[in-house]
Amino acid sequence: MRKPVLAGNWKMYKTPAETRSFFEAFKPLVRDATHCDIVICPPFPNLPAAVDESKGTSIAIGAQNLYWGKEGAVTGEVSGHMLQAIGCSYVIIAHSERRQYFGECEADVVRKTQAALEYGLTPIVCVGERLEEREGSRTEDVLAAQFDGGLAPLAPEHFAKIVIAYEPVWAIGTGKTATPQIAADAHRFIRQKVAKKFGETLASSARILYGGSVKPDNVSSLMAEEEIDGALVGGASLDPKSFAAVVKY
Ligand code: 13P
Questions:
Q1: Distance between CA 239 and CA 235 in Å, rounded?
Q2: Is 81 in the active site?
Q3: Is residue 60 a contact partner of residue 27, using CB atoms and an 8 Å limit?
Q4: With a threshold of 0.90, does the pTM exceed it?
C-alpha cells in the first residue's frame, strides 16, 4: 500500500553537462519502471538541466537543501519558492552531512520542512545515528530525539506529506550497509514513534526509506523487508546503469 521511493542523492558531484549525459542514458533504462517513485537530487546548479531532461518522464527532481524564508538578505541560500519556480518537487532536509558539517539541528528540520511544504515540495527528512551512538546502544535515544525535535512538532496534515529517510551515519559512503534486519528494526522504532504521536493511520502510510551504501547487489534484500519503503542512494545513483538497477531492484 506504500509506494516505494527510490531517490538518488548526488551530493556535490556532476556538472550540468554531466547531468544531461546521465539523463540521456538513464531515461530509457527506467521507462517501464512504474512500481516506484523515482527522484534525483543533483546539486543546485544542475537542477534546471535535470528538470528539463526529466520532462515527459516520471522522474521527479529534488534539491539537497533549502532555506526557510521566501527571499531576503541571506547570502548563499536558496529558497523553496525558487526551487518550486524551476520545477523541483522534492527536497532533502537535514542530511547527516548537513547536520555534521553545517550544524543543522532539529529546529532547522521543523522550519525547513514547513517551508518545503509551503512551496509544494515533498521533504525527504533524514534521521540516523552515528557509529559511536550505535556502539553505545544509543540508537533509539538518538532516533527518538530527532523525531521528537524535528518531526513531532509538525501539524498532522504536514507530517502526512513527508518522506522519512533512515540513514545510519556509519553506513554512508563506507560500504558498510546496515543489514536488512538492522534497518527494519530502526524503521519499526520510527514507525512506533509516529503511531504514538500521529496515530496508526499516519504511521501505516508513512514512507520510510533506508540510506547508506545501497547498491544494485544489496537493494533487493533491503526492499524485501516490509518496513523498508525505498532507498536514498548516494554513490550508486551517480551511474545511470547502477541507479537503474537499484530502481528495478
Ligand atoms: P551512499 O549510498 O554513498 O552510502 O550515501 C548514502 C547517502 O548519504 C544518501 O543520502
A1: 8
A2: no
A3: no
A4: yes
